[in-house]
């Protein structure tokens, strides 16, 4: 009878070991599933964040390029106005400058 009890004890131990192995495998699989889910959620959040940042960047680029075009046009207008002003001033005083140069060139000093 003692041998029977030992045999039953070994069988119980083997059964308990198999059950423990099933529990460990189930826990391992659950852990892997949770890790996979966490990774997918993190990737989704990263994608959403990137999309948001890209949208904000595109908005800023479009705002600044619109302003840039307006600034370029304004600068061109200011430059044209300054050129016209300088040409007007040059035309107004060119006769006096020519007379002054002729006077210096034709005057001999001892």
TL;DR of this structure?
By secondary structure, the protein is mostly helical. The protein has one helix spanning 2-106.
Write a structural description.
With 110 residues, this protein is mainly alpha-helical. Helices cover 95% and strands 0% of the residues. It contains one helix and no strands. The chain has one helix at 2-106. The longest helix has 105 residues, at 2-106. The radius of gyration is 46 Å and the shape is rod-shaped.
Highlighted features:
110 residues; mainly alpha; 1 helix
Oligomer: single chain
Please compute the radius of gyration using only Cα atoms.
46 Å
Helix content: over 70%
Separation of the first and last Cα atoms: 150 Å
Uncertain stretches of 5 or more adjacent residues: none
Q: How do the helices and strands follow one another from N- to C-terminus?
A: H
Residue fraction in strands: under 5%
Q: Tell me, what's the shape?
A: rod-shaped
How many β-strand runs?
Answer: 0
Structural category: mainly alpha
Largest sheet: none
Mean pLDDT: 90
Number of helices: 1
What topology emerges from the helices and strands here?
Layout: H1 2-106
């Amino acid at each position: 009878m003692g041998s029977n009890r030992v045999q039953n004890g070994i069988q119980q131990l083997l059964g308990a070991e198999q059950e423990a192995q099933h529990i460990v495998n189930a826990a391992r699989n659950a852990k892997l599933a949770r890790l996979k889910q966490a990774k997918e959620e993190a990737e989704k959040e990263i994608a959403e964040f990137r999309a948001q940042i890209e949208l904000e960047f595109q908005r800023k680029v479009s705002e600044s390029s619109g302003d840039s075009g307006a600034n370029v046009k304004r600068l061109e207008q200011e430059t044209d106005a300054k050129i016209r002003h300088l040409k007007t001033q040059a035309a107004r005083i060119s006769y006096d400058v020519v007379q002054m140069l002729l006077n210096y060139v034709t005057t001999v000093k001892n």
